[in-house]
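Chain A, query sequence.
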Amino acid sequence: MLARVEQVKNTVSAWAGITVNPHRFGGLEFNLGTVEVGHIHSDGMVDIPFNSKIRTQLLAERKAEPHHLLPETGWITYYIRSAGDVEQAIWLFRLSYLFNATRGAQKAALKDAVNVPEAFAALQPSAELQAIFGSVARITAVEEQA
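Chain A, predicted structure.
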């Protein structure tokens, strides 16, 4: 399990503006400026904050589960149980990262480092998630080039 957690850590910590700190309940916390993008526990449990619209869509698409302690909030939980789950965990962290990269001080700090519409399109989100993300993050998805 530690190798899978390390793989997530190495990937997420390489993104522009991300810092890694010990999480107060164990594991590692990933921050973008002062905002938590999410955290991962040593047992492979991932907790990530989203707004309620994004959370609801992720649950509907079965990409995550309600938060293990705060099921009525925007937080989600995802369990890394196998090697194949690592990519989904990274996908969820990336979604949170991109969402937070469109807001406040992070938006200005990352404007030259991350092309959010292009990076979001690379996640190949569902049409429903594109609509929700676009409305809350005020981005437009990159149109496919013919």
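Residues 140-146 have pLDDT under 50 and may be disordered. The beta strands are 18-22, 28-32, 35-40, 45-49, 65-66, 75-79.
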